[in-house]
């Protein structure tokens, strides 16, 4: 991760939105301040018998519109400011998609790649024990994020239920199907992004069946995005990469083979018969669609002017700095901003909450259709706002989301 502080970026974005909406300073101050945050120490018994103390965070940014919602990251570079920024973006994401939810985020400083399944289970359970009193189906509902999995969600749900003394499936989303997960949640982030890409391509007159695509990051979001771009649109994925490097091929990378290769060798860059490419080079390829699907701050003032893509679909949270945003807007690059593009994950998480409340499971096709409606509506409301106010897509998304949060805060008598 770079030295750019994501929470400073998030606050600058709110300031820019406050200027457009002419918000009074007291309301702006409220929007820039997390409502509640927890810092917890998590002692975990490691496989060698020693005890290691991990540091964890949970930030509940704003619950004016409902219980806070957002993932948990297990990452060696986690910081409280990253979690604050991500929790603020969850607030705008849920509001933009018109979900009855606020925004939150959690994080634990650890390297899951160096931990055994048993150690990860004990850490997952320790995290839930530490924050138990402050989360719950009507308070704050976590989910997976970078380096956390459905299995970890199952352990966390189980720990919460054990303490509560009853099944509490609704405490967490992104669970496996057999323990209250929703059909369609696994690839929901990428699939939701596809609906926004489809709408953007229509509005820009791009034929997606002839489009060239590059994907940066090959975790849950990146892999499914690459797969779905070729499955749903017939686009050619000419390059993919992960934290260790990448591969490119003008006739198309086999997305399933790249996935298997990553699982077996630890990186897509070991895929045989391909040219290798660095993360930096991938960002500057001559493609129609660039999909950043990893972590924050990878499009900055250093590389923004070199980006040739017509559409940047931000499946990652916070990949673009404000300076880069200005450059991309001037250059006519159509950015589908993160908290619009990647909102499919939390939208299906919300569907999962609804199904858990009702103890009823929807059909997968039903989930896709509802997701499509939500994403398509959100995309067009942002596009129209951007044209109306003559601002870039990110600022337009902020305008729509912040208006809704401010309305809720006013109705509740907070401001
Ligand atoms: N971690 C995902 C996000 O950043 C999903 C959050 C959720 O499902 O609550 O949107």
Our estimate of the beta-strand percent is 15-25%
In terms of per-residue confidence, which ranges show pLDDT below 50 for 5 or more consecutive residues?
Answer: none
Number of strands: 12
Helix-strand pattern: HHEEEHEHEHHEHEEHEHEEHEHHHH
CATH topology (fold) name of the largest domain: Rossmann fold
- For the biggest β-sheet, the strand order reads 9-8-7-6-10-11-12
Task: Quickly give the CATH architecture of the largest domain.
Answer: 3-Layer(aba) Sandwich
- The pLDDT mean sits at 97
Describe the fold and architecture.
The protein is α/β, with parallel strands linked by helices and about 425 residues long. It folds into two domains: about 35-170, Leucine Dehydrogenase, chain A, domain 1 (Rossmann fold, 3-Layer(aba) Sandwich); about 190-340, Rossmann fold. It has helices at about 5-20, 25-30, 80-95, 115-130, 150-165, 190-205, 220-235, 255-265, 280-285, 320-330, 340, 345-360, 365-390, 395-410; strands at about 35-45, 50-60, 70-75, 100-110, 140-145, 210-215, 235-240, 245-250, 275, 290, 310-315, 335. It has a seven-stranded mixed sheet with strand order 9-8-7-6-10-11-12, with helices on both faces. The chain has a five-stranded mixed sheet with strand order 1-2-4-3-5. Helix 10 links the parallel strand 11 and strand 12. Helix 1 crosses helix 14 (about 395-410). The protein starts with 5 loop residues before the first helix and ends with a helix. Bound molecules: glutamic acid (GLU). Glutamic acid binds near residues 71, 173, 317 and 342.
């Amino acid at each position: 991760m770079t030295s750019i502080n994501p929470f400073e970026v998030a606050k600058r974005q709110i300031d820019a939105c406050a200027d457009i909406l002419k918000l009074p300073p007291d309301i702006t101050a409220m929007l820039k301040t997390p409502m509640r945050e927890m810092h917890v120490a998590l002692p975990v018994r490691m496989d060698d018998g020693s005890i290691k103390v991990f540091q964890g965070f949970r930030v509940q940014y704003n619950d004016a519109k409902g219980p806070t919602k957002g993932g948990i990251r297990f990452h060696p570079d986690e910081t409280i400011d990253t979690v604050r920024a991500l929790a603020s973006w969850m607030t705008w994401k849920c509001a933009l998609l018109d979900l009855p939810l606020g925004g939150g985020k959690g994080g634990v400083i650890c390297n899951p790649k160096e931990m055994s399944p048993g150690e990860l289970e004990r850490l997952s359970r320790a995290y839930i024990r530490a924050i138990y009193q402050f989360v719950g189906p009507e308070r704050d509902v976590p989910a997976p994020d970078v380096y956390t999995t459905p299995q970890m969600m199952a352990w966390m749900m189980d720990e919460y239920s054990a303490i509560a003394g009853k099944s509490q499936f609704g405490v967490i989303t992104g669970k496996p199907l057999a323990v209250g997960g929703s059909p369609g949640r696994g690839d929901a982030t990428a699939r939701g992004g596809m609906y926004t890409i489809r709408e953007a391509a229509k509005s820009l007159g791009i034929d997606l069946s002839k489009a060239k695509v590059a994907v940066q990051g090959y975790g849950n979001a990146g892999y499914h995005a690459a797969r779905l771009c070729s499955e749903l649109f017939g686009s050619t994925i000419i390059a993919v990469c992960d934290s260790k490097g990448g591969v490119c091929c003008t006739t198309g990378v086999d997305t399933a083979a790249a996935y298997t290769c990553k699982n077996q060798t630890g990186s897509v860059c070991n895929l045989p018969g391909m040219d290798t490419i660095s993360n930096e080079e991938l960002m500057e390829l001559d493609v129609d669609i660039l999909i950043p699907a990893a972590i924050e701050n990878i499009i900055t003032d250093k590389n923004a002017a070199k980006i040739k893509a017509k559409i940047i679909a931000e499946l990652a949270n916070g990949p673009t700095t404000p300076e880069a945003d200005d450059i991309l807007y001037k250059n006519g690059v159509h950015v589908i901003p993160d908290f619009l593009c990647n909102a499919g994950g939390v939208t299906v998480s919300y569907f999962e909450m609804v199904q858990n409340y009702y103890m009823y499971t929807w059909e997968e096709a039903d989930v896709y259709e509802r997701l499509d409606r939500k994403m398509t509506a959100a995309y067009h409301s942002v596009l129209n706002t951007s044209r109306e106010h003559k601002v870039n897509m990110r600022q337009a998304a902020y305008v729509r989301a912040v208006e809704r949060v401010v309305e809720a805060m006013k109705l509740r008598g907070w401001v």
